[in-house]
Amino acid sequence: MQSAERRTTLADVAAEAGVSVALVSIVMRGAPGAGAATRERVLEVARRLGYQPDSRARLLRSGRSRLLGVVFDVRHPFHHDLLTGLYDAAGKAGYQLTLSAVTPRRGERTAIGDLLQDRCEALVLFGGQLRASELASIAARLPVVAMMRAARRRDVDVVHNDDALGSHQAVDHLVGLGHRRIAHVDGGQWHGSAERRAGYQEAMRRHGLAEHIRVVSGGAGEEDGARAAERLLVDPPTAVTVFNDLSATGLLDVLRRHGLSVPGDISVVGYDDTGLSRLAHIDLTTVGQDIDTMAAGAIERAVARIEGTPAGPREMVVPPRLMVRGTTGAPRPAAGASRQP
Amino acid sequence: MQSAERRTTLADVAAEAGVSVALVSIVMRGAPGAGAATRERVLEVARRLGYQPDSRARLLRSGRSRLLGVVFDVRHPFHHDLLTGLYDAAGKAGYQLTLSAVTPRRGERTAIGDLLQDRCEALVLFGGQLRASELASIAARLPVVAMMRAARRRDVDVVHNDDALGSHQAVDHLVGLGHRRIAHVDGGQWHGSAERRAGYQEAMRRHGLAEHIRVVSGGAGEEDGARAAERLLVDPPTAVTVFNDLSATGLLDVLRRHGLSVPGDISVVGYDDTGLSRLAHIDLTTVGQDIDTMAAGAIERAVARIEGTPAGPREMVVPPRLMVRGTTGAPRPAAGASRQP
DNA sequence: CTGAAAGCGCTAACAA
DNA sequence: TTGTTAGCGCTTTCAG
Q: Residue ranges of the HTH lacI-type domain (chains A, B) (predicted)?
């Protein structure tokens, strides 16, 4: 199989079928304007010759690419689920996706550069660390939708989870179970951390538990949760809400190693509903982001900008949903204490 | 920002810089044949106008795309690591990657179809369920490299882990620790399961432990490992090698719930060295696949086929490497025996 | 060193 | 219903 074999083109099919290339083009893309018999014959020839349309030539000519560029990070557990939803939504809207990955050795800038060269009509960015000014200069050239990113700018659409609401749900659940001394392990500098922390504090105040507010600094990793647990152990609360699932598993581990039972002695709530939280022996109660809605929202925003239709609000906030599993339960009746609200 | 703003093209840059498009083309791709001064000026203008080359037009004209299509599955934990290595290797070989994802609602055929339209020069397929005949018909049109797939065919290059060797490493490690009664939980119908099982059996025989061979049927999921553990508990061996990490965690969980200590009472070895196995509270000894070597190998095979260079062997088998962590240790001296540690 | 001209494979007007 | 004619933005001879 030498590469000498030129690929079959429209012209080849046209010649073989004895018609013009224009007609074959019409038939190939199912456009109206071709006789049933001819159509049939052309299709047959195309199949026989193994004709494959050349998307580049096609897009080049038709001016538009109907391509949506997506930048995702191979390391992020979330991004893959998001891709699933994005493909669905894009397909429905009549757009195609082209993917560009960020890896430990391939930066966001490179990933975006590739997409720009592919003449995408809009960009969907997951997470990412780009400076606001860079984002702005890209957004000046084509619509950009940022998902799960802090960018609260006027030149970029933002689709993200309602982090504050998620924390509310977690706290409400714990309070409903009877907890009062509820701590929070935050996510440090990570996107969403500030919102989740604030949400926790607000919910605590709303329940009249301001005096029990206790924030321990953490991070996004397992070790961050473990470290936070050590600090919590000095005076354990009856429940903890944690920035994310991974950190929560680190915390769980340390808690158990120190002989605390979960949820007997202490309840734990994670965030994100990752596969990890669903593992039987972790079985973590967690706040799940509505990934499909977020994906659909992102595509809808992108398409709206491309087609210049509505230009609705720049920000789309999607409500999360609490997934109650095995790490939360009623607190043990406090020894000796009898404060009943 | 209306879409009326046409993108800047080579011609725009040429006009602005007062030179011909051909010259700009030369400068833009760093080809020889332009004066230093002109080059400088053209580059400056291009930057000022925000010129971005159009990869489609470029590739269309130059005949070749230098594009490698990659089909991966968003659900597979492995595939993302593989992508990292693939980007590196492809870049070094002067090729670009275009990604096409398989999702729960987007099949492999669709994913491949997109890539074919993009005029990739070769395909790299991760896993996948395509029938051999389909694979063959695709391979008839362009070089195909299959990774981690059973395809042992003459029309497709195959790059995969040496599963048998991995099992050998696991068993050797355990025997070295003093284990004799070593069981194996297999992966059912999954790719690699048969090889890993056979490798286990062979290694056991090699160590003169044929009488202790014990295979329990399992699968790739956590619940498969859990189920296997239940069966193993009837008469626990001192060590188990498991098809993959996920299954191993399910097994670990059940073992511990039944009061067995790991590695005190029983040692466990997983397979794949996924992120899961590295979590502090799982800390699973496991057989790691050499992902970077596999990725580099896949690209090297693909490029060789494209450029018609060597046409070496169709199959590339990469040795794995045992990652010793906390779930393996010396067996407890058998009751009645008198070996004191 | 630079420019003019000829397409790559396809689509979109228009004409027949 | 079908064919003709222009290009899309770029690279690539080939002259100057």
A: 8-62
